[in-house]
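Extended Data, panel c. Modelled sequence:
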Amino acid sequence: MKEIQTRAIHAGRPLPRIESAVVTPIFQTTIYEYHGEPYHDVGYLRLSTTPNHRVLSKRIADLEGSESALVTGSGMAAISGVLLTFLASGDHLLLQDCTYGGTSGLLNKELSKLGIRYTTIDAQDPASWKMLLTPSTKAIYVETLSNPLLELADLEAIVEFAQENGLVSIIDNTFASPAQCQPILLGFDIVLESCTKYLNGHNDLAAGCVAGTQKNVNRIKHTLDHLGGHLDAHGCFLLERGLKTLGLRVAHQSQSATRIAERLSRHPAVAQVSYPGLVIHPQHARAKRLLKGFGGMMSFELRGGLSAAEQFLGALEIAIVAPSLGGPESLIVRPAAAVHSGLSAEERARSGITDGLIRFSVGLEGTDDLLADLLSALGSVTGE
């Protein structure tokens, strides 16, 4: 198999090249001539059947190691499309106990209205999962690296458990991206990602994707064809452009984050750093085995709690306080105030999301510059 840097540029490209164009042109049209195709295959932008969509689907499937893939209008479109495809009224889901706030919000605020229920599981304790099964349990949903605490679930045990109990195994691979992990190759049924983050990597596009077997992806596509969760042609162009540098970007961010995490873990103002590349991380050995590099995401707890966190964020000059990740600009945020603000204080406490917790997405800036910025801001907290 070719290296990811090569596949991210060339996989799925149209051959012969369209009008000899090296870059896939933007097909700025909503409709195409009809030739008797069934509804879901008609050439129409909302049905994700344009040439731009086809190139992306093939490339993302190649990167994920899947039979098929589908690009969507956002990460939440991917999440909602998957859950509404495999869960119906009365069905039950097993959900990792600390997940992206948008996922839990969707389940709590919207899917609960449809009679879809879920129970949280400790992704590190396979022995406890069996007792949470019900006759209506249909799927199990986890994240490769949890948001925001960077826990690495026991992925192999989850696949085995799902297969033994006839469950659809779903994983959100956003924090890792296929540059770090290919859950399909571990046996997961469905992989989804917010392409807004690492796959696009430029903080200028909202998109998502799902990957799996042709049968499963077709089912999800049919759901999203009705919901309208498509990506426009220019968005497809931007995402294809972003994918071309995925391997290079993630490699730099991973190397930079490793240095930064090691330094922060020794700082007196920092109570704890959660980063799978640290030897003290509880799943470090698993991360070494399952991941290609440790990624650009980390979280850390400041000893001074809320006041220290706010003072620290206000003193930064390079890192930008903003609730996203995976782009060239380093982004930093307090999850309790942004990404997980939709959860109650009690729910955040149960998930380990305190007021002094900081989530940091390491960008493409110079590592020494980022370290100097972070250490200077921490100095404003300690008075040094």
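The radius of gyration is 21 Å. This feature is highlighted in the accompanying rendering.
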